[in-house]
Every structure is written in C-alpha cells, then in structure tokens.
TrEMBL record:
InterPro entries: FAD/NAD-bd_sf, GMC_OxRdtase, GMC_OxRdtase_N, GMC_OxRtase_C
Active site (catalytic residues): H557, H600
Name under which the protein is recorded: Glucose-methanol-choline oxidoreductase N-terminal domain-containing protein
A single GO molecular function term of this UniProt record: flavin adenine dinucleotide binding
Highest classification ranks of the organism: Eukaryota, Fungi, Dikarya, Ascomycota, Pezizomycotina
Record domain Glucose-methanol-choline oxidoreductase N-terminal: where: 311-325
Entry-linked PROSITE patterns: GMC_OXRED_2 (PS00624)
Ligand binding (FAD): V121, V270
Keywords: FAD, Flavoprotein, Signal
Family: Belongs to the GMC oxidoreductase family.
Signal peptide positions (record): 1-20
Organism: Coleophoma cylindrospora
Cofactor(s) recorded in Swiss-Prot or TrEMBL: FAD
Length: 622
C-alpha cells in the first residue's frame, strides 16, 4: 500500500481551512424586499450573470437585479474540496444544485438518453465542474470573427481572459518537477477568479507526458497564449494555499454582495420576458417570474436592459416562451410571435466523450487506490484539511492534450474527403430553417477546410491516473433546444443529435485507437497498464463504433443555441450581443458562441461576460 507521508506532503505553508463560505448583505430570500424596478435585470445567476452583475454594479448610480432559479450553496465539502468533485466522494452532480435534466434519446446512441448536469445554483456550472481554466487556440476564436463577429477573435478576447483572472504561478520546485512554464504577459494579476495549479499531481502523469513526447506531440510553453495545441498543463479555478474551489459565486458575488445597488433574488425562475413593440423595434420592459408552478407569477421592470444569462439550455426556453423564435414553431404551441427569429434554440453543440480506463501497477499514490481504500482516502482527506495538499487538492487531471486530426490519425485524408463530399445540409434536421442552414453552411465550410490543419485541435485527450478520456471538440452534428409546451416549468426538449453526421463518429474511432496507442509506449508500459474498460474484446472498427454509441457522454459544455452570427445566417444576437429586432435585450452566456472552441469553456464564458459588461457600459463596441 502506498505511503501517504512520502507522496502527499508536497506541503504548502500550514493553513487553517474554512470550507463554509458565509453570505450576507443584499441577497433577497425569495422575493421579500424586492424593488419594483431596476436599471438592469439579469436572468440567471451563473458564471456570466454574476460577472455582468458585478461589473455593472460598479457604477453606484445604477441598480442591478439578478434572478436565479437555484439557491446559494452552503459551502459543502462536495463543492469546496476539489478532490471530491473528481470522484473521491459524492460531488454536486445529481443534487439540488443540478437541474437534473437529460438529452432526449438518440437513435445514433442506440436510443440512449444522456444525463446533462447543469448548475441550478448561484454560480451555475462553476459549482459543479472540475474547475479547469484552459483557453482555446487562437484559431478557435478567430473563427468567430470569420463568421461575421468583428472584435470577437482571439486578440479581441485576450484582454478579457486576462481581466477575469488572478494567476498564481507554480512554485519553482513544483514547476521544475513537472516541466511547467508560463508566459506572464497573457495572465491577469488582479481579476476576480483565482487561477492556480494544485499542489499535487498524480505521479503517473509523468508517464503520460513522456508518452505524448515519444509520439511526437508538441508541448507548448504556455497554452494560454493562443497556442493550445499539444500536451500541456492547465490551471484550475483554485484558491491558492487553501486549495478550495474558486466558483463564480465566490469570485464575482461574495466579493461585492454588500453593494446596496445589487440585489440577488434566489429560488425564482423567470417565466417570460415582458416586451413592448409600439415603437417599431421590440423593447424588453421587464420580466415575469415565479418560485414554482403553483406560485403566483410576479413581475419587475427593467429601466435600461434585460440581460439573458440563463445558459445554453435555458436562454432559448425563455426567448421562446416570450414569443421570440421561429414563428411557425411558436404558432404550433399557440404562442404569438413577437420576433420571428428561427435561430433561437438551433445550432446547439456540446463536447462529447468516451473513456478508456486502465488499471496501473504503481507503488505511488493513485486514484484507484484511494477510491478502493477508505482508510487511505480518510488519511488523504486529513492531510488536505490540515495543509490544503495531497490528492484532495486537485480536481483530477490538469494534464490535457488538444490535438489536430493529423496528430492522432493516419486516416486524415479519408475522413476529410468524406466530410467534404457530404454537402452542408445533408445531415441537418429535416425542418431546419433556410437561414439556420445558411449559417451552418458557413460553419461547415470552415470545419471541413480546417479538418486537416495543424493549427486547430479536433480532439482532446485528458489523462486521469490510468484513464484516457477522448473528447470531440468540433462536431459537425447540430442539435436543438425547444420548449415542449407553454408551461415555463416543463423541461424543454434537449435534442443533441450526436453522431447524426457520420464524420463525428469517424473522428472518435480514430481518437480511440490513439488513446490505446498512448498506453503502448515504453514510457507508459512501465506502469503495466491493463485495460479494464472497454477491454480486449473490443478490437475492430465496428466494435469500437458500438462501444462509442453505447457510452458516449457529455463533457458538460452545452453552447451555441443563440448564436452570435448575422441574422440571415440564423444568428440570434449581433456582435454587440443584442437580440435581433430588439433595442435593449442582450444575451451574455455560452449560447452566443457560434462554434465551440477546443477547450473547457468556463474561462471563455468568463471572458465573454467581461467583454459583454464593457459593451453594455459603452466601454467597448464591436
């Protein structure tokens, strides 16, 4: 049995951990003491909503209300302690802090439905996720600008990546041990989110990195500078020293919650936007909300703007319930059209993954040993609570690899040629609107053009102590989000349409083969890996395809369902994030992404929201 005393005590200065996050001030329980009107009303208290609320309320002359369906977390260990969120115990997924919804059953997944954890809590997904703070490559964001969004390329977003974070470099000995370098010029020193490295890395990660190097994979100095290609280290949204989660709630709300001009209404769901069309364009004059389906609906007025930050699965729902969306679809539900905007709820994308799990033979500390041995786990937890170190100080793996197709496949030309020969509309849903199809055609042309490029990653390979996770970054398949009825408390239909485009499956099959290849390198075979899942019975392409269909799951990055693109391309917002046809309704969450970047999206959502706040305040224009 591995010894804790040798491997865990990568000791930071002794600290006293206080895991419960106190709250006080202007939080409004239910709707007691709510004002009748505010300058800005923000729908959703997740990552983007809290960022924008914080920045707008810096001006004491304006009033801001955030309405959130969930409640404040109580600082539970399963939220605050990174190791628990990685699987060393019950994490927040599936609890009251999760909407507990699923994608609809998919024929391409053998009629499986896939659970979709999304935060129903102040702080949103930053309460549930594994805290990774990586960024996409330059090409990922430059694609956004190419689709008609001036100012939304990497150069336009970098100042906001920097603005959102306070970066803590690794200690010199830690950096030397793990080969971590950083470029200070692309990191922030005064942002609200603590971005730092955990004081512990599972020892077998060295074998993984050496395997990648032996396979010719690049190791960039600092992927945060737009060179997120190859194998590299990522920071976490981690409070340094104490090694606790730095959620959006902790970072952007708790730090300013005593501002008298900022109110947070919890436990209430926005049921509809109140709009006025008498002036020609549509003005959002306020919102309606209720605590549950049996409660009375109440309203509040917005003097300046209504800002949607409900996330990619709920922002389209609010718009559609308010008569903003496809007029023909809304008519089928008896909803009068306020703005005919077919792109609402379309273009939905999500990163999807399968895993190859290996047991490894090591005398060092391993995740598997901790998971299987309660005594060892308890000892590790005691070390963490005393010092903020050891396996509980990390959310799992901070070793990532984002690879172009040519890095992991010998079938690049075959897959690229096949994808290019499809025709852009071949695998879209039959009822896709012509404008949405035009927008997809523009994306499809970019995706196929870049499929064989070495400047953008198609697949992510995450290592976690023997397990290799394979995640598709740029799916060609497109899903949708549509309300099922006029009941605002009914769950919408989340149709992922994963693998509806066969090129996606082809890429994942190639990635699966490469994932196995990693474990056959001499650097990895010293760990005597044994594939526990799916195992040696899965060998042929057909068997791999079946395994993928039966196990594909979400990496929890739903996005793109209210895309920032020209209206004639199925766009929902312009480059200033205004909903087309409105004068004062904006969207600031991940639903505005036109295409998914190859990254875990939390840091991108922070940057988008920071930029959105500047646009709203007039400090920036696009």
């Amino acid at each position: 049995m591995p010894s804790l005393s040798r491997s865990f005590l990568l000791v930071a200065p002794l600290v006293s951990l206080s895991l419960a996050a106190p709250f006080y001030g202007r939080v409004i329980g239910r709707d007691a003491n709510i004002s009748t009107s505010y300058d800005y009303v923000i729908v959703g208290g997740g990552v983007s909503g809290l960022v924008v609320a914080n920045r707008l309320s810096e001006d004491s002359a304006v009033t801001v209300l955030v309405v959130e369906a969930g409640e404040l977390d109580a600082g539970e260990d399963f939220i605050a302690i990174p190791g628990i969120s990685s699987g060393l115990g019950q994490n927040a997924v599936g609890t009251k802090y999760d909407w507990n919804v699923s994608y609809s059953a998919q024929s391409e997944l053998n009629n499986r439905s896939v659970q979709m954890p999304i935060g129903k809590v102040v702080g949103g997904g930053s309460i549930l996720n594994r805290m990774l703070m990586d960024r996409g490559s330059k090409a990922d964001y430059d694609r956004w600008a190419e689709l008609g969004n001036v100012g939304w390329d990497f150069a336009g977003l970098l100042p906001y990546f920097i603005k959102s974070e306070t970066f803590t470099p690794p200690a010199a000995d830690f950096a030397a041990e793990w080969g971590i370098e950083h470029d200070a010029s692309v990191h922030g020193t005064s942002g609200y989110v603590n971005s730092s490295y955990p004081p512990f890395v599972y020892p077998s990660t060295k074998n993984y990195f050496e395997s990648m190097k032996s396979l010719g994979i690049n190791v960039p100095k600092d992927a945060a500078n737009g060179e997120a290609l190859g194998a590299f280290w990522s920071t976490l949204a981690l409070n340094p020293g104490v090694s606790t989660r730095c959620s959006a709630r902790v970072a952007y709300h708790d730090t300013v919650e005593t501002r008298s001009n900022l109110h947070l209404l919890t436990g209430n769901q926005v049921t509809k936007l109140v709009t006025d069309s008498t002036s020609g364009s549509v003005t959002a004059t306020g919102i309606e909300y209720a605590s549950d389906a049996s409660s009375a609906i109440k309203s509040v007025t917005a003097n300046k703007e209504v800002i949607l930050a409900a996330g990619s699965l709920h922002t389209p729902q609010v718009l559609q319930l308010s008569g903003i969306g496809s007029a023909s679809f809304l008519s089928s539900l008896g909803i009068s059209s306020v703005i005919d905007l077919p792109g609402v709820g379309e273009n939905h994308q999500d990163h999807q993954y399968v895993a190859i799990a290996n047991t490894i033979n090591t005398t060092e500390v391993s995740f598997n040993a901790l998971s299987a041995n309660a005594t060892l786990a308890a000892e590790a937890l005691a070390v963490y609570k005393a010092n903020g170190t050891g396996p509980y100080s990390t959310s799992g793996s901070i070793s990532l690899a984002f690879l172009p197709l040519g890095n992991y496949s010998n079938a690049t030309s075959t897959i690229t040629s096949s994808a290019g020969a499809q025709g852009a509309s071949t695998y879209l849903a039959n009822d896709t609107d012509a404008t949405v199809a035009a927008g997809y055609k523009a994306q499809y042309d970019i995706l196929v053009r870049d499929m064989d490029s070495f400047n953008i990653a198609n697949m992510e390979f995450i290592y976690s102590d023997g397990t290799v996770v394979l995640a598709l970054q740029h799916p060609l398949s497109r899903g949708s989000v549509k309300i099922a009825s006029t009941d605002p408390f009914a769950t919408p239909i989340y149709d992922s349409r994963w693998l509806s485009n066969p090129a996606d499956l082809a890429q994942i099959v190639e990635a699966f083969k490469f994932g196995r290849k990693i474990t056959t390198t001499s650097a990895f075979t010293s760990l005597s890996p044994v594939e526990a899942f799916p195992g040696s019975a899965v060998t042929t392409d057909a068997q791999i395809e079946t395994y993928i269909r039966e196990n594909l799951a979400t990496l929890f990055h739903p996005a793109c369902s209210a895309a920032m693109m020209p209206k004639e391309m199925g766009g929902v917002v312009d480059s200033n994030l205004l909903v087309y046809g409105t004068s004062n309704l904006r969207i600031v969450d991940a639903s505005i992404f036109p295409m998914l970047p190859a990254t875990h999206i939390m840091s991108t959502v922070y940057a988008v929201a920071e930029k959105a706040a500047d646009i709203i305040r007039g400090a920036a224009t696009c």
